[in-house]
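Lecture notes, part 5. Sequence design as translation. It can be helpful to think of inverse folding as translation between two languages: the language of shapes and the language of residues. The source text, in structure tokens, appears below.
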């Protein structure tokens, strides 16, 4: 279980803000860079004034940063702003922001600085491994008990505690080694390629003749959507329907069995692996 699993709920809350920003021409890359530069500014403030009384700012800003990270991703995906440059900004910005926001703890008294530097190294390593998974055919990895959101929660909570109870600085000698262990546990599953299970696809094609072909195709398309509760992966052309889905063959066989296919329909099948 990781805080990252709460992301869909968080995104739903942010969607009105995303739509507002898109309406006024704010891009995903602008949001990404803003989050990074704001993180650097907050990190410099905490470093130049190494006092626990300022650390109440950390959980507030970490929440803002988390919101900005979600917003830039939603702008990119939902408003067609994806780009290779944006992906680089996103990954690089996360790493720089982590270092900028957590390194200032080193300047506080009675902090386990060596453990903190190890944490920063492992934090960079976990993100690197997560991105590296894409180069071997797997998806971007976010799993593990100490991902980006989990680190923000831990350091934000700790920052809030030491802001009001400076004596808690000594907790770092116990907290930071625990974070290191959790980061190592995070690295392990991310370093393993997540194999995609091969799916057997039966592609059914219907050649429909007659004036009612468009109506027939739309009927088949809508019925498939209703049965599966999701958009069908279908190709619709004049007089031709293709259903490409793991269970597409079963659907079309049932349609044929109950006489629901249009007249003068020819069925043909192709088996493929994905």
């Amino acid at each position: 279980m990781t805080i990252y699993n709460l992301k869909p709920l968080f995104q739903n809350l942010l969607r009105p803000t995303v739509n507002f920003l898109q309406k006024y021409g704010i891009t995903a890359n602008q949001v990404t860079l803003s989050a990074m530069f704001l993180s650097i500014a907050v990190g410099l403030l905490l470093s130049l004034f190494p006092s626990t009384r300022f650390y109440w700012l950390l959980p507030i800003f970490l929440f803002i940063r988390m919101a900005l990270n979600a917003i830039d991703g939603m702008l990119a995906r939902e408003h067609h702003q994806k780009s290779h440059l944006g992906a680089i900004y996103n990954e690089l910005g996360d790493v720089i922001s982590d270092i900028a926001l957590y390194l200032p703890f080193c300047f506080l008294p009675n902090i386990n600085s060596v453990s903190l530097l190890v944490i920063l190294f492992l934090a960079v390593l976990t993100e690197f491994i997560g991105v590296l998974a894409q180069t071997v055919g797997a998806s971007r990895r976010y799993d593990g008990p100490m991902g980006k959101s989990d680190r923000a929660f831990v350091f934000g909570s700790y920052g809030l505690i030491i802001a009001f109870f400076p004596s808690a600085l000594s907790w770092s000698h116990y907290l930071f080694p625990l974070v290191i262990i959790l980061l190592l546990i995070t690295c392990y599953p991310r370093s393993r390629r997540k194999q995609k299970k091969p799916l057997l696809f039966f592609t059914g094609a219907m050649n429909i003749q007659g004036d009612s072909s468009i109506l027939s195709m739309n009927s088949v398309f809508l019925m498939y959507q209703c049965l599966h509760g999701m958009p069908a992966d279908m190709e619709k052309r004049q007089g031709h329907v293709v259903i490409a889905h793991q269970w597409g063959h079963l659907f079309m066989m049932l349609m044929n069995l109950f006489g629901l296919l249009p007249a003068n329909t020819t069925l043909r099948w192709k088996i493929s692996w994905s």
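The translated text above is only one of many valid answers, since several sequences can fold into similar shapes. The chain has nine helices and four strands.
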